[in-house]
Amino acid sequence: MKHVIPALKLIFWLVLCQLPGLAGAGAVQPNLAWYHSLAMPPLTPPDALFGMVWGVLYLLLGVCAFVAFRGGLNASVRKPLILFIVQLALNAWWTPVFFGNQNPGAALLILLVMLAEGIWLARVWWSSRRVCAWLLLPYGLWLAYAGYLNAAIWYLN
Hints:
Layout: H1 4-28, H2 32-37, H3 47-69, H4 78-100, H5 104-128, H6 130-156
Helix pairs in contact: 1-3, 1-4, 3-6, 4-5, 5-6
């Protein structure tokens, strides 16, 4: 029984961190024709790569949350927990705005807030859960790359 609770906590965080991807999934497919009609910047990856990368990043976020919050949700983790939940919410919001509303400009604003907020979260975790800050590095790099793509799509179209 001693190992069941940590395993359930890990599963909880892994599932929770998949929700932003699921939240936006319904907006992508119906709008792929619009997306493919846009002028694309250099270094735009194939569509399939986005889903694979986000799947891995959401797993890393889940592991990060498990490590950060496995001791329980108390006052000492309140700030990082709020920042983490805001990060997931911003992530869930981007896809419906970009694809569903077909609004790269508004999506870029969300992405810039997401990137800044992610940096803030990494800084908070650097002092208390350094492994979590390191686990956020691939996520932050991908957000920066996604920011380049989003900004270029907005500019080119």
